[in-house]
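seq:
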Amino acid sequence: MFGIPSSFYPDPVFTQIGSEYYAKGANAVSWYSALPNCHRIGAELISISKIEMLYDIQKHRNRTSNGTKYWVDLSDLATKGDYVSISTGWKPTFVHWYS
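struct:
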């Protein structure tokens, strides 16, 4: 079975939201700064693959951070309007995150 091993104890900088762990920086930064900031702590930008993940993130955000916005792992840097994942290079399968 896949998932988070029972022996996994996350660094305090990470917060569990649903079945995933996320880190939030202390200050608002651009997407260009957020990407290397994530990599420095061994993380990636948010990759939302299903509606349940989106709802979990939205509920947490609304409960704890007054509507803070988060950067996602998609970019159209190579071809404008053609979004791909920065970590995989694949086109997204779920794009209902945009508001």
